[in-house]
């Protein structure tokens, strides 16, 4: 067994340069160096997918990926991740050419230059992620990675179980077939009133929920995105923004890394 000058066992395969793992973890806000050392020794830390228990292990924060208890850790402290409950009437753009209200109202308060992950149409409210992490944004927004979004739709008429089955089995739209990953009725009062339907899907096609409900005879009156991947809108009020918690960010990064690995 080899040791470093302080007598700490080292891995001969570890990089000779780089930064000590526990120091990187502390800088990223995971825990103090001492607690980080305990996490490493307990086998709860992975570097690039492999468990590391050597306290002398050095890593390259710019390229190596860390996970603690299988939850990803962001080592780049210049990255910012914000959740917005977008109001109706705001377009998902940083500068609308037609002069309509846009996202600058919510991003100007941050020092970082943030941009939106995906889009919500102007008449749809709900969860929108703002970030300066382009790699993460690409994975979350591109439909090929299969990150799901959940919507609550208030629609005209009484939605039946048969209609829910049709949404899940698939319908044909002008731009091709589409099916919901999940669909369920939240409320469906008797008569010709309004129903509430929850739809989960990974498609990124334009106005897809509105077009799906229109196709099955239940036009959307009001639409809210409540969930994006592992993130939930919760009690965030319309028009409010907040930074993601460390737990939320860890879940989001974990989903992102899992998708790019597949």
From TrEMBL:
GO terms for molecular function: RNA binding; rRNA pseudouridine synthase activity. Keywords: Isomerase, RNA-binding. It catalyses: a uridine in RNA = a pseudouridine in RNA. Pfam families: PseudoU_synth_2, S4. Residues 19-83 form the RNA-binding S4 domain. Its EC number is 5.4.99.-. It comes from the Bacteria. One of its GO terms (biological process) is enzyme-directed rRNA pseudouridine synthesis. The keyword Zinc-finger does not apply. CDD domains: PseudoU_synth_RsuA_like, S4. Belongs to the pseudouridine synthase RsuA family. This is Pseudouridine synthase. It comes from Cryobacterium mannosilyticum. The lineage of its organism: Bacteria, Bacillati, Actinomycetota, Actinomycetes, Micrococcales.
């Amino acid at each position: 067994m080899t040791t470093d000058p302080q007598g700490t066992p080292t891995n001969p395969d570890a990089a000779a340069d780089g930064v000590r793992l526990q120091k990187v973890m502390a800088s990223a806000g995971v825990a103090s160096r001492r607690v980080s050392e305990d996490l490493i020794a307990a086998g709860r830390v992975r570097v690039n997918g492999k468990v590391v228990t050597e306290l002398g292990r050095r890593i390259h924060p710019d390229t190596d990926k860390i996970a603690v208890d299988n939850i990803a850790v962001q080592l780049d402290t210049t990255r910012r991740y914000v959740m917005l409950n977008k109001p109706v009437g705001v377009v998902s753009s940083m500068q609308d050419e037609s002069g309509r209200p846009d996202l600058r109202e919510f991003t100007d308060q941050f020092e970082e230059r943030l941009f939106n992950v995906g889009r919500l149409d102007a008449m749809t409210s709900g969860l929108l992620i703002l970030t300066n992490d382009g790699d993460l944004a690409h994975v979350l927004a591109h439909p090929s990675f299969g990150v799901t979004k959940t919507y609550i739709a208030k629609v005209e008429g009484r939605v039946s179980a048969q209609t829910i089955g049709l949404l899940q089995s698939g319908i044909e739209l002008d731009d091709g077939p589409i099916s919901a990953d999940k669909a369920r009725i939240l409320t469906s009062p008797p008569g010709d009133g309004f129903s509430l339907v929850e739809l989960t899907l990974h498609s990124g096609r334009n106005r897809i929920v509105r077009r799906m409900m229109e196709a099955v005879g239940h036009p959307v009156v009001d639409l809210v995105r409540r969930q994006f991947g592992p993130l939930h809108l919760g009690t965030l009020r319309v028009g409010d923004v907040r930074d993601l918690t460390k737990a939320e960010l860890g879940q989001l990064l974990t989903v992102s890394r899992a998708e790019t690995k597949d």
